[in-house]
Amino acid sequence: MDRQMYHYATVSKALQELNDKGYTTDFNLEEERIKTNSEDFEISHIYRYEGESDPGDEATVYGIKSKGGEKGVFVVSPGAFSEDGAAKVLLDMSIKGRAEQQ
After folding, report:
1. With helix as H, strand as E and coil as C, how does the chain read?
2. What is the pTM of this model?
3. Domain range summary for the chain, segments of one domain joined by +
């Protein structure tokens, strides 16, 4: 993973910023692809938003690049980290990336 950038903004602002940078694929619609081919993806941006007044507003927005150059986003709510879901795969990838940078 080349770099991770943590921005604190609204989810819609994070999605707009990523869209402006060419991250246009909605990888939430392709969750199975991420789960089965995680080695083909890298996380280039992580935006975390924590709702100050409503925990239901919390989310993490991942900016993801495929080895083929496709760029897109995956939005995760806090309760979405099931053992076999794409959100868990992305969390594991981000943790591994942090460990490799140290």
Report:
1. CCCCCEECCCHHHHHHHHHHCCCCEEHHHHHHHHHHCHHHEEEEEEEEECCCCCHHHCEEEEEEEECCCCEEEEEECHHHCCCCCHHHHHHHHHHHHHHHHC
2. 0.76
3. 6-101
